[in-house]
Amino acid sequence: MVAVSAAQPRIQLLQTPTAPAWVEQAIAHLDTVLLDHSHCERKAAGVALNLMCRYPSSEKLVRALTAIAQEELSHFELVNQWLERRQVSLRPLPAPPYGTGLSKQIRREEPGRMLDSLLVAALIEARSHERLGLLAAHCPEPELAQFYRNLMASEARHYGAYWVLATTYFDRETVNARLAELSAVESTLLLTLHPEPRVHS
Amino acid sequence: MVAVSAAQPRIQLLQTPTAPAWVEQAIAHLDTVLLDHSHCERKAAGVALNLMCRYPSSEKLVRALTAIAQEELSHFELVNQWLERRQVSLRPLPAPPYGTGLSKQIRREEPGRMLDSLLVAALIEARSHERLGLLAAHCPEPELAQFYRNLMASEARHYGAYWVLATTYFDRETVNARLAELSAVESTLLLTLHPEPRVHS
Questions:
Q1: Fewer CB atoms near the end CB (10 Å): N or C, chain B?
Q2: CATH level 3 topology of B22-91+99-189
């Protein structure tokens, strides 16, 4: 468990809400979105693990990200169980431009690299949280909708944890200024709906 | 839990046992070995996750390695709790030549790349298992010795899981022939004791 959930109600990371067109696209392609969701959970575990590897002396970061990586892996497992139940085989899916578009914003030099990595992860988690909520609200299959609702309860902690880590290693003004820039990019990346149904299309 | 433990009693992956000099070196530098052990657990989670990412359509592999990655992360957490208790700060440690020496043996083209990756992971897990057992047997601090004994019970499954995956995707003769080559390299890499105390020095 990530012990930073208290900070969440005050965090408003996303500049613009998801457009209704995404909800329509996702609901019309639930299996593909579920398969993409599986890849997202695995990649999210990888992001946490890579950061733990890059900053091995940062104890608070290592502790928080170990918990996040574990939770992402357990979600990966749950999503894969849903895929199996729906007889959707695991297979690669080309990623939408969202993740690469955000990663390009990460500066190469420290300490900017650390701040940007934490904030980009926070934004992706915040957007995932929002979209799982939309799936929970609009999915016409009650059991699957309930699954998304259950995931949200723990997903909600992740973007808070990344944001708290950013404010642990950087002063609040620096964090807020960079967050404003990155969240503007994040919203712009989603202005045009990606033609392939994805969690971040 | 990795559901392949039944195959283990028949697996003898290592060609030569660890030399007594390693035990002496490790017991004389318990804190450093514990810190290195922390890095090993995190890296082992990374190896499992990378393979899941490289072979996303291989359902059995994905399932077994998700369980392994989760277990490695939980061991990482346990080792870090021991480091905290002993007031050893997390910090990077230069790796011994063992891991790089084994990785160099992994062929770049498929399907050899997959077979070699699974067998190299199996060998590293088998050697780790053997060495945790030596620490459990020789550590003069009873609680730490008990910790190593506890870890071994689950670590024992990992090399079995990698070996079973190899025989799932490749025929037994191919696996045994390549294992003989790789385990010879593995033993050779440990012939000379690395001057820095490490799990794989």
A1: N
A2: Ferritin (1.20.1260)
